[in-house]
Amino acid sequence: MVDVTPVIALVGNPNVGKSALFNVLTGARQKIGNYPGVTVERKVGRLPLGDTYAELLDLPGAYSLDSTSLDEQVTRDIILGRQTGQRRPDILAVVADASNLESHLRFALELKALNLPMILILNMSDLAARDGLELSPQYLIDQLDIPVIETVAVRRRGLDEFSAACQSLLAKIDMSEEALAIDDQQLDSLFSEDIRASFAKHSKSLAKGTVVSETLTREWSRALDNVLLHPMGGILVLLAIMFLMFQAVYAWSGPPMDLIEAGFEAVGGYVDGAMADGFIKSFLVNAIIAGVGSVLVFLPQILILFFFILLLESTGYMTRAAFVMDRLMGMVGLSGHSFIPLLSSFACAIPGIMATRSISDQKDRLTTILIAPLMTCSARLPVYTMIIGAFIPAHDVGGGVGLQGLVLLGLYIAGILGAMIAALLLRRSVTKGASSGFLMEMPRYQWPRLRDILIGLWQRAWVFLRRAGTIIFAATVVLWLLLTYPKVPIDDPAYEGVSQVDYSIAGRIAGTIEPVVAPIGFNRDIALALIPAMAAREVAVAALATAYAIDGEDEDKVSATLGQKLSGQWSLATALAFLAWFVFAPQCISTIAVTRRETNGWKWPIFMLSYLFALAYVAAGVTYWSAVAFGLG
Amino acid sequence: MKVDVNANRLQIVTMQLDSLPLKQKMRIASIDWSQISETEGKRLRALGIEIGASVEALHRGILFWRDPIAVRVGRMSIAMRSKTAAAIICEANDNG
User: How far is A470 from chain B (nearest CA, A)?
Assistant: First the structure.
C-alpha cells in the first residue's frame, strides 16, 4: 500500500440511510466543514480498517452524475477528482436502499460505467425484509462482479464485512491522485437517451433477479400517508406539529434555563465578593458573566427547536410537510422545496440558507435565501423573551393561553407574513422567472435514530457555543471597553451626576446615532445596543445587560434584573417598536457572510441588507406611532 | 382521454397522469418532454419516470386544490405538480 490515507466515499441517492451508515462507521471520529469555494457540507470521518484507517467521505445525496443541483454537482466533481481540496476517492461505496433496488441501482450502474473500484451496499435490509422482500445479494455479485454487502446501519450489521471488503479491495488497487481521465463529452454520452434506457432496463432486470420473493406490504407507511397527506388532515397535522414545536420551546426550556441563569448568577456573585474592585473584576462580572451569560441562557431553547427539526427530518415527515405546503408556497411564487430551508431558518438562517442548495431552480433558490432571515430564528428569542417578559403582563387570556405567548406567536406570524409578501414582490421583480416545479421523492417513514439526532444536536450546540465564545464574546468585550472608557472624572464636581454610559465612547457614538432612530421611538440605550448587535442579534441583550450593569455599578447592590430595569425606563411603545425592528432587521454577520458565499458575490447580500433594514425601520416606526396614538407612549 | 395512435395495439385508452383515478396501477406510455423544462426532465428521468415504468396515483391535492399529487413509481413515492403530471401519458398495465 502507498503511504497516503486511502479515501472511501459513500455515494447514493438521498434517503438511502447514507448518513446513518456514516455515523455508525465513523462513530465520533468525524468532522464537518465546507469544500473550498462551495458551501456544501464536507462530512469526513475516520473509518477503522484493521490496524490502519481510511478517510470516509459522506457525499451529498444524488440521483445521477447528470447534476441538477449544487449538491449533485459537488458529488460528481468529487467522484471525478475535479473538486479542489479533495483527493479523488479510491473506492466508491455505493449505498442503495435494499427495498428500492430498481430505482437505486440505476445510479450504481451509471457509476460502474466509470470503471472505478466499487463496493455496493444494500442498506436497510431489515426494512426490506419487513417490506416483504427476500433478497439474494449473490445474484448481484455474479452479475456486476463487485463486492456486495448487506447492512443495517441502525443495528450495526454488516459493518465488519464492509471494512473487510474495503481492505481487500484496497490491497488490489493502485491509489492515484489524478483526476479521472474522462472529459465532458464522454460523460455526457452516459446520459444519452439510449444509455439511460439501457441502465433503466438493466437495473430493472437486476432488481428482479435479486428479489427472490416479494409481497407488497409497506402498509404502515401507506396508512400514515393517508392521514399526513390528506387534503384536510394533512394540513391540520402540520399545524399541530408546528404548534407543539413552538410550545415545547417554551414549556421544556424553563428548568434548564433557570439552572444556567442561577449558575451564572452564583459565579458572578462569587467573583463579586471574592475580588477587589478594579479593572479585572469589572471585566469579569460585567463583560463576561453578564454579557456572555445572558446569551448562553438560550441554549436550551435552541436545542429544543433543533431537536424537532432533526426529528422531522429523520422520520421522513419533512418531505410530507413540503408536499402539504407546496400549493400555498406556490401562491407567492415558491414551491414546497423552499419549505424545508425556511423551517430550518426558524432555528437559524445559516443552515436554512445552506439547505437551499437542494433547490434546483436558481430563481427559487435565490428568493428563498433572501427571505430566510425573516423566519424568526433562535437568536431573536433572547431579545423577544426579554422584552416580552419585561413589558407584557403574564395575563391568562382564557383557556390556559397566556398573553405573553400570544405576543410571541404574533411576532412569528409577522415574520412569516413579511417573508411571504417579500417573496411575492421579489418573484415579480428581481427574481422574476417562470414558476418552478415541485418534484421530490417522499421516502418511506422511519423510526428516528436517537444516536443520529444526538450527534446532530451536539453539532448544533457546538456551533452555538463557538459563536458565543467568539463573535458574541468579542462584540461584548469591545462594547464593554467602549462603555468603560473614558471614565467619568469622579473628583471633578462639574461631572456630578453624569452617567458613565453617557460619558463613554460607546455612549457618545450612540448619541450621534440616536437622532436617526429617535423618530421610530428608539432611545439612546437602543441605539447603543443596535451597533454591536450587527454581529449577532443576541448581542443586543448582552449589550443592554452590560450597559445597565456598568451604570448600576455605583448603586448599592443592584438586584433588579435586566427586565425590571428596562420596564422602568422604556415606554411600552418603544418596547413594541424594538420588537418590530427585530422581526425584520438583518442583524447577523454570519447570515450576511453565508449569503455572500452562496450567491457568489456582494450584490445579493447588499440587496438583502438594504431591503430588510428599510422594512425594519418602517415596521418599527409604524408600530411606535400607532402605539403612541393609542396612548401607550 | 384520447386514443394513442402510436401504440402498436389498436384502441388503447390513455390518460394523463394528473387525472388517473387514485390507487389504480398504470404504465407510462409516453412523455411529452416539450411540456417539461430541461432540469425538471433530468430530475424526472433520475427518479425513474420513463416510458414503461409502472405508476399509481396515491394522493391528490391539499385543501381545495387538486395540486400537488403523490405518485408511486416503482417502489418510490414521488411528489409532483399536476402540470408536470399532465405531460405524462399512461396506459393500462397489462401485467395487472
Answer: 41
Are the beta carbons of B67 and A197 separated by less than 8 Å? no
List chain A residues with CB under 8 Å of B44: 439
CA–CA distance, A47 with A49 (Å, rounded to integer): 6
Q: Is the pLDDT of residue A556 over 50?
A: no
User: Thinking of the domain A7-217, which architecture would CATH place it in?
Assistant: 3-Layer(aba) Sandwich (3.40)
Q: Which of A309, A318, A299 is nearest to A378 (CA)?
A: A299
The CB-side HSE value for A113 (13 A sphere, CA atoms) comes to: 19
* Max CA distance (Å), chain B: 41
Question: 3-state DSSP helix/strand/coil percent for chain A, to nearest 5?
Answer: 65, 10, 25
Asked if B40 reaches chain A (Cβ–Cβ under 8 Å), the answer is: yes
> Which residue has cell 443586543?
A540
Helices A450-467 and A18-26: angle between axes, nearest 10 degrees: 80
A197 → chain B, closest CA residue: B50
**Torsion sign across C-alpha atoms A609, A614, A617, A618:** negative
Q: Average pLDDT, whole number, for chain A?
A: 84
Q: Would you place residue A121 in the very low, low, confident or very high pLDDT band (cuts 50, 70, 90)?
A: very high
CA dihedral A231, A233, A238, A243 (to 10 degrees): 140
> Per-residue pLDDT tens for A220-264?
778 899 999 999 999 999 999 988 887 787 778 888 988 988 888
With contacts defined as CB-CB under 8 Å, which chain A residues touch B47? 63, 103, 439, 441
- pLDDT category, A557, cuts 50, 70, 90? very low
Residue ranges per structural domain of chain A: 7-217, 458-570
B46 in contact with A, Cβ within 8 Å: yes
CB contact under 8 A, A330 and B37: no
Domain extent listing, chain B: 15-92
Tell me the β-bridge partners of A440: B79
Q: What is the mean pLDDT of residues B50-73?
A: 89
Cβ neighbors of A70 (< 8 A, separation 6 or more) are A38, A40, A357, A358
A536: which strand partners? A588
Q: Which among B65, B70, B63, B74 has a CA at the least distance from the CA of B84?
A: B70
Dist CA A310 CA A261 (whole Å): 27
- Contact in structure between A108 and A94 (CB atoms under 8 Å): yes
What's the average model confidence in pLDDT over A277-295? 77
Contact B37 A324 (CB under 8 A): no
Q: What residues of B are in contact with residue A444 (Cβ under 8 Å)?
A: 77
Tell me, yes or no, if A361 comes closer than 8 A to chain B by beta carbon: yes
* CATH for the B15-92 domain, from 2.40.37.10, 1.10.1200.10, 3.30.160.150, 2.30.30.90: 2.30.30.90
Contact state of B68 with A63 under an 8 Å Cβ cutoff: no
